[in-house]
Design goal:
Helices cover 77% and strands 1% of the residues. By secondary structure, it is mainly alpha-helical. Strands 1-2 form a two-stranded antiparallel ribbon. Helix 11 (242-270) runs antiparallel to helix 12 (276-304).
Length: 434
C-alpha cells in the first residue's frame, strides 16, 4: 500500500495524456475571447441598441445551461468503439470550427446569416464542452486531478493570451474573400479554426479512452437508468449535502466573477482613462496569472487539501477586492499611471487566487462522482456557472448604475464571502476520498 501511495503523489506517467486532453481546453481558450470581443462589433454593423446586442450575446450562456448538462450526461451513457466522450469531440468540435470561421464572413453579408451562424456555432460548441471537460477525470486518477486540472487550465490560459494578443492582431489584416473583396476583421477566426481542427486530430490519434472500466453487466444496467433530469435531481437530493453546497459555492463565486468581468474594460476606460486597446490589458492581467499559477495551485492543493486551499483563496480574493474597492473609491488623487499600474497589480493577484479556486473545485466535484456519473457532475458544474453568467451582469450593472463603480467590487466581495461560508459545509472531495 505504501508503494502505491508514493506512486500517486506525482503526475509522472500522465503528463502526456493530460497535455493531449488539454488540447480540448486550448480550443475553447482560442475561440471564446475572440467571440466575446468581436461578435458584439459584428452585431453593431446592424444593431444600434447595446441592449439588443447584449441579448444576442447571452445566447451562448442560455444554450450552455441547456446543452452542457444534457450532452455531459448523454456521454456518460454512450458506448462506442472509440469511447464515450470521443464521438462528441470528433464530430461537434470540427463543426464548431467551421461555423466559427464563417462568423466574420457572414457579418459582411446580413444580420440574419450572422445570427444563424452564431446560433449554430453555440449549439455545437456548448454541446461538446461537457464531453471535452469530462474526458480528463475519465483518464486521470482522482488523487491527481487537481494537478492535471492545473495543467489543462494553464493550456486554456495560454490559448486565451494567444487569442487576445497574437490572433487578434490578424483582425487588422486585409484579405480577399470571394464575393466580398478585400476586407479586414476576418482572418483571426479561420486561423483559430485551423488550430481547433488540428487539436481534434491530435486528440483522436493519441488519446485512447479506457473502455474496460465498465463491465458488460454495468452497461446493461445503465440502459435502465432513470432519465437525465431525474438523475440530476437525485444528485442534488442526496442525503449527504457536500455536492449541493459546493454547487451553491461555485454559483456564488461565479456570480462575483461574472459580475465584475464585463465591466473591467469600461472601468479602465471611463475611470482610469485608458484607451480602448489598453483596456484589454486589465483582464489580460488575470489571464497571465491564470496561465502561470494554474499548475502550482493544483500542486498546493494536493499537498494541503482542496477544501482548505479553496477557502484560503476565497478569503484572499475578498481581501484583494476590498483593496480594489479602496483603490477605486478613495485613491482618486493618485497620478493616473500609478492608479492604472496598481489596478493591474491587484488584478494579477486576483487572477492568482481565482485560478486556485477554479483549478481545484472541479476535481472536488469529480471526486464525489463515480465513473458512471462524471458527465452528470460536469454538467451540474456548468449549469450553475453558466446560470451565474446570465443573472449576474444585470445585477452588477444595476449596482454600478446606482452607486458607481466602487459598488461593483463590493458586490463581488459579498458573493465571494458567501461562497467561503458555504464551502465550510463541504465534507468530501479530497484526493484521498473514494
Amino acid at each position: 500500500m505504501e508503494a502505491v501511495k508514493k506512486e500517486k503523489k506525482s503526475l509522472k506517467g500522465y503528463w502526456l495524456t493530460t497535455f493531449l486532453i488539454g488540447l480540448g481546453f486550448f480550443t475553447m481558450g482560442l475561440m471564446d475571447p475572440l467571440y466575446d470581443n468581436y461578435v458584439p462589433i459584428f452585431l453593431g454593423y446592424y444593431i444600434e441598441q447595446n441592449s439588443l446586442i447584449g441579448l444576442v450575446m447571452t445566447l451562448d450562456n442560455i444554450l450552455a445551461i441547456i446543452l452542457i448538462p444534457i450532452f455531459s450526461a448523454l456521454s456518460d451513457k454512450t458506448r462506442t468503439r472509440i469511447g464515450r466522450r470521443m464521438p462528441y469531440i470528433v464530430t461537434l468540435l470540427p463543426i464548431s470550427a467551421v461555423f466559427f470561421a464563417l462568423v466574420p464572413v457572414m457579418a459582411y453579408k446580413s444580420l440574419i446569416l450572422l445570427v444563424v451562424t452564431i446560433f449554430m456555432l453555440n449549439i455545437s460548441k456548448q454541446a461538446v464542452r461537457g464531453p471535452v471537460v469530462a474526458l480528463m477525470p475519465d483518464m486521470v486518477p482522482g488523487d491527481l486531478r487537481s494537478e492535471a486540472n492545473g495543467v489543462i487550465n494553464t493550456m486554456g490560459g495560454i490559448a486565451t493570451i494567444l487569442g487576445t494578443i497574437l490572433l487578434a492582431r490578424l483582425m487588422d489584416v486585409f484579405i480577399h474573400v470571394p464575393g466580398l473583396g478585400n476586407v479586414d476583421k476576418v482572418l483571426a477566426f479561420p486561423v483559430a479554426s485551423v488550430f481547433v481542427i488540428l487539436a481534434v486530430v491530435l486528440l483522436f490519434v493519441f488519446v485512447k479512452e479506457n473502455r474496460s472500466k465498465v463491465s458488460t453487466k454495468e452497461d446493461r444496467e445503465e440502459k435502465n437508468n432513470e432519465p437525465i433530469i431525474k438523475s440530476l435531481k437525485a444528485v442534488i437530493g442526496e442525503k449527504e449535502k457536500s455536492v449541493l453546497f459546493i454547487l451553491l459555492s461555485l454559483l456564488c463565486w461565479f456570480i462575483a466573477y461574472q459580475g465584475i468581468l464585463p465591466f473591467v474594460g469600461k472601468y479602465t476606460t471611463e475611470v482610469l482613462g485608458t484607451s480602448a486597446g489598453t483596456a484589454a490589458l486589465s483582464s489580460g492581467m488575470v489571464g497571465v496569472a491564470y496561465a502561470i499559477f494554474a499548475v502550482p495551485s493544483g500542486k498546493f492543493a494536493h499537498k494541503h487539501g482542496r477544501k482548505k486551499t479553496i477557502r484560503w483563496a476565497l478569503i484572499a480574493i475578498v481581501i484583494v477586492l476590498l483593496l480594489v474597492f479602496i483603490h477605486s473609491a478613495f485613491l482618486t488623487n493618485l497620478p493616473s499611471m500609478v492608479r492604472l499600474l496598481s489596478f493591474w497589480v491587484l488584478l494579477f493577484f486576483f487572477g492568482i487566487f481565482w485560478v486556485t479556486v477554479v483549478t481545484n473545485s472541479f476535481p472536488m466535484l469529480w471526486q464525489m462522482a463515480d465513473y458512471k456519473t462524471i458527465g452528470i457532475y460536469t454538467g451540474l458544474y456548468y449549469f450553475f456557472s453558466q446560470a451565474a453568467s446570465i443573472i449576474s451582469p444585470p445585477l452588477a450593472g444595476g449596482a454600478t448604475d446606482l452607486w458607481g463603480y466602487p459598488a461593483l467590487f463590493l458586490y463581488g466581495l459579498v458573493f465571494m464571502l458567501i461562497a467561503y461560508l458555504l464551502m465550510s459545509k463541504v465534507n468530501r472531495g479530497e484526493p484521498e476520498d473514494d
